[in-house]
Amino acid sequence: MRHLPAYRPSLRILLAIGLLGATGCGASVGSVTGLVTYNGGPLKGGSVTLIPMDGSGESFSGQIQEDGKYTIERIKSGKYKVCVETSSLKPAAQGMGSYGGAKGPGVPAAKMKNEPPPGAEVPAGYKMSSSSPAARAENARRYVPIPDKYADPTATPLSVEVKGETHYDIPLG
Question: Cβ distance 95 to 104 under 8 Å?
Answer without folding.
Answer: no
